[in-house]
Amino acid sequence: MATLGNLLVIRALWKASSIPPTIRQLFLSLAFSDLAVGLFAQSIRGVIIAVMLRMATNGNYNSDFLCPTILTISLFSTFFLACASFLNITAIAVDRLLAISLHLRYKEIVTSKRVIIALLSLWIKSGVAASIFILLHSHNGITVVIVELVGLLLTTVAYIRIYKVVKYHRNQIQTQLQSPSVQATELLREKKSALNALIVYIVFVACYLPNFFSVMLSQIIDFGSSFVAANHATLFFLLLNSSLNPIVYCWRYREIREIVKNTVKKIFRVTER
Questions:
Q1: The predicted structure's pLDDT at residue 124
Q2: I want to staple 241 with a disulfide (CB 3.0 to 4.6 A). Which of 172, 189, 193, 207 is the partner?
Q3: Residue 36 structural domain
Q4: Can you list the residues of the chain whose pLDDT is less than 70?
Q5: Distances from the Cα of 230 to the Cα of 47, 63, 82, 137, angstroms
Q6: pLDDT of amino acid 118
Q7: Burial, 210: exposed, middle or buried (Cβ in 10 Å; 0-12, 13-18, 19+)?
Q8: What is the pLDDT of residue 214?
Q9: What sign does the dihedral 110-129-196-152 (CA atoms) show?
């Protein structure tokens, strides 16, 4: 789902003309990180869990069976890509806040070049955070808690601020709708875009919060072996976010939905021939 879904969404985003360039770049970055999660993080983790379950079934389970290099690559790729998706959603929230707050000045201040620089910085920070996670192995739980706490706080504050700004402009928009203007149309478009990004955020919080609480509690209370099962379960939901985002895109963006539907129809036609 994460691999095929995000491949279809990336193609649709590339062709979609109704989505502004800056928000398209942000969503493309998120889709690429989600695609990489499907190709690498989910695949590697799935293989490791499958081997662990098979060994446990045969009664010869030994936690030392994992090659340290493979384990390091698995942990690094999982944290790096999950962190990149996490920060991409945070960046989208901040971008929608600027769009709602700045109005017509948004296009002047938030340019494609600046968005690209911000995205490059975001991916570099994800790499640095993943490196710290690996190097400080005995304190990697603290690293996870700090990254997730900062991202959740920033994103939540951004959407609270968006809600207040939208509420403030509601009467203004309703007044302007009686005599339609460019500004009223622009405000309605930005409000809809903020709502679409909010849906992405809600799915994101639902997937990341269990892992956040699980890791945070493990730093306070020693759960022993029971934490291992809880950790695997919360990581499942964390990685599931990359599979759910394409569904959100297709649900909230009509043009993306139509392009994806047409692409799938073409694929099945070729297969039938």
A1: 95
A2: 207
A3: 2-272
A4: 61-66, 167-194, 222-229, 270-273
A5: 19, 17, 18, 19
A6: 94
A7: middle
A8: 80
A9: negative
